[in-house]
Every structure is written in structure tokens, then in C-alpha cells.
Amino acid sequence: MKSVFVAAGVLAPLAAAHSIFQQAGSGSIDFGTSCTRMPPNNSPVTSVGSSDLACNVGGSRGVAGLCEVSAGDSFFVEMHAQPNDRSCANEAIGGNHFGPVIVYMAKVNDAKTADGASASWFKVDEFGYDAGSKTWGTDTLNKNCGKRTFKIPSKIPAGDYLVRAEAIALHTAGSSGGAQFYMSCYQVRVANSGSGQLPAGVRLPGAYSASDPGILINIWGDFGTYKVPGPAVIDQSYF
Q1: Closest CA to 169 of 58, 20, 57
Q2: 3-class SS shares of the chain: helix, strand, coil, % to 5
Q3: Could you give the count of Cα atoms lying within 13 Å of 165 in the half-sphere of its Cβ?
Q4: pLDDT of residue 197
Q5: pLDDT at 6
Q6: Mean pLDDT of all residues in the chain?
Q7: Residue 5 has pLDDT above 70, yes or no
Q8: Domain extents for the chain?
Q9: How far is it, in rounded angstroms, from Cα 164 to Cα 175?
Q10: CATH tag for 18-227 (out of 2.70.50.70, 3.40.190.10, 2.40.30.270, 3.30.70.260)
Q11: What is the dihedral of CA 167, 74, 69, 104, to 10 degrees?
């Protein structure tokens, strides 16, 4: 959905309930959006075969900033519905946009120039659906002011990485093409005193199919166990 102008010429808020992964941080450090490849708006990607699935629309182009961390550090990504609105009073992603939250990383030669679509992505974190508490990954974002915190694997090599944060809204996923993918990529430089090892990865697009049970699903009925799309989170030995 394009941004629209009201009669007075003021830019109207972006689409309600849609959302953007915007800020990042590590520990007590708030990087803001300094290393974020910000999408042009809060509209989702809806095709699993689109090159935009890697880092969103325009996300193949890098930005000037890098977020510098060390292997083993905690790192958070932060989603909000409107640009630069970090108010915890507003839902990070509302409108019954229930679904999983997933974080990938990819080792690249230069985080400022890597396109994302040709990268090898490995999954470092996910929250799908907890049947006991009836909690979706997106619910955890709303409960934590948009934040999802994970650990940078301690055993990966030093160097440049892209971090890809994703929420998949499944409220209209009962028909093919109905799932909505919200993702942003962050440019990160990881320091590590050891040599490290790199997990096997997947391509995005490529790792998802429109018929995957975690993508083509009616969440309003009895769907049983939910399977998060993509590969499994890398082995705990990497952490």
C-alpha cells in the first residue's frame, strides 16, 4: 500500500496493523536505525518467490551504518507499526496479525554492499506458537514493546553479517498467497577472538514454499501443532 496524502497535504500514517522492523540494540546499547536497511513503507511482501523476501523492498541496497557487536552478545531487533514511533502504548503489530517471529543471520564479505538474496542464511532464533498459552511470536513482540532479543552465536567467525528479522502474519493465510511477510535486514560486524565455524544456510527466496504448512494455514480453525517455516534453528553448540 502506498503512502497517501490527506487533503491538507500532510503525510497520513502508514497502513494500520502493518509494521516494520526498525531499531536494533545490544545490551545497554541502542543503535536506533543506524544499521537498518529500512523498507520504504510498512506494507508486507506476499510472494515467497520475490527477491524482496530477503531484505524487503529496496533492501538489496546497503546503508552507511554498521552495528558492531561481539560473538556471544545479546542483540535485539524492534518492530513498530509507524516509522520512529517507539511508544510501548501502541502495539508493535496489531490487527490480529498473528504469526511467528524469526531471526536469521548470513555471513557476507561486506555488510554495506551485500544484496541479501545471494546470501546463505542460517536461523538463530524463532518463536512460532505456544499452544498451552495460545501465544504467537507476534504476541511476544507486543508484550515487549516490539523487541525480540536473541544471542549472537559465540562460535561463528568474526566479520560482516546481515541479520534478518521477520514476522509472518497468518490472519489471511488460509488461501495461497495470503500470508504476509514483514522483514528488515541489519548490517552487523561481529568480533570474535576465535576462528569460529559457519553453520550451513539456505537461500531467501528459496527456503519457503507457498504450500508450506506454516505458510498456508487457517489459524482460525483447529490447526494442531504449528511448524515454523524454514530450517531449524542452528544447533546449540554454536551458541
Answers
A1: 20
A2: 5, 30, 65
A3: 29
A4: 86
A5: 32
A6: 92
A7: no
A8: 18-227
A9: 26
A10: 2.70.50.70
A11: -30
Q: Residue 141: helix, strand or coil by DSSP?
A: helix
Q: How confident is the model at residue 59, as a pLDDT? A: 98
Q: Say if residue 101's pLDDT is above 90.
A: yes
Give residue for cell 539456505: 202
What pLDDT band is residue 7 in, cutting at 50, 70 and 90? very low
CA distance 215 to 180: 9
Distance between the two ends of the chain, CA-based, in angstroms?
39
Strand 67-70 versus strand 180-191 pairing type: parallel
Is the pLDDT at 2 greater than 60? The verdict is: no
What is the rounded CA–CA span in Å between residue 59 and residue 120?
Answer: 16
